[in-house]
Amino acid sequence: MTNLILLRHGETDWNRERRIQGLSDIPLNDTGREQAREAGALLRVELADAGPIVVVSSDLSRATETAAIIAEALGLPGPKQYPGLRERGYGQAEGALVAEVPTLFGSAERDLIPGAESSADLRARARRALDEIARDAERDAPGASVVAVAHGALIAELVRQASGGALPRPGDRIPNGYPFRFRLSPAGIELATDASGTSLDGFHSTVRV
Question: pTM of the entire structure?
Answer without folding.
Answer: 0.91
